[in-house]
Give the backbone structure.
Amino acid sequence: MDRVRSLDAAARDEHTTQAVGPVPATVAWHTEVSGEQVHRPDPRDAFPVAWRRLDDTHFQVRARWPRRHRFFTEVAGRFQDPLLIPETLRQGSMLLAHAAFAVPVEDRFVMQRVRYSTSPARIRLDHASEDVIADITCGDVRRRGRRLAGMRCAMVLRRRGRVVATADGRLDCVSDRVYRRLRGERVSLTGRPVPLLPGLPPQAVGRTDAAAVVLAPSPRPGSWQLRVNTAHPTLFRRQDDHVPGFVLLEAARQAATAFSLFPGLMVVTDMDMVFTRYAELDRPCWIEADPLTQGDPDPGTVRVRGIQDDAEVFRCTVTVAASEPTAPPLAPDGPRNGPGTER
């Protein structure tokens, strides 16, 4: 796979609309976007609101990020959740697969790899009410007959013309019939209750809500057991026969955060995850973190792996950046939010 464009490279042309040149005003947006197309039945979790085709392989997706959300919450009090970036790539890619490449809505998608890059300054909450525009290039398109079998989607994400992040991923498509054949008897486990393990303290993994914690304690340093909360409406948007890839992405983020000295002040700026097999719901999955540079007392880059039945489920490189909290600004006549004053 080609390397994703670096954030610095994207920033050099941040005031252009897209790699193929300015978009004519006559290129209309398609505004009928359904939760079914982005595989998010709850509208609170569906972010794309429009899309348009620039040419055969170049598209734009307009997305509306939530200022407040039950899962994608503020980081360190002043940054948007960086996992909105890979989630926008995921939802945008699926939207284009259905709307532009005619993939049936009942087909299944398998993300082989996903990665993104940003910086704390680019995801500040200052302009959180502004929509983001994802310039998505679809390459390495594979087909089985007339059906889309897979493609690589590279994304440059902008807000108000300025680069927010870059990301890319490899998406494979299989019919529901083929998926059921691949998964075999595992499909019968769909909806089966999974015991909820006790979680780490939310502040240890950079969260504020205990329901969003996906790591359980382990006696081994740098190792945790995956905590599967099938009742969480965002992490498990539907009954499934395996752990969704997004849960594993969050596990890697939480592991890297917990591995740092100051988990409450860490922003995950870069992730590069490769999925190697399905994570099963009924088997313990261990999340292990190691510093990229051995002996580093406070590593900025961490290697995280998921291990189940002595086999690797995923591997991920995670980079974190520290950020000092900032007190809310004061109004000229005193505190902006006093007792009894709504935000």
The first strand starts at residue 48 and ends at 53. The two ends are 46 Å apart (CA to CA).
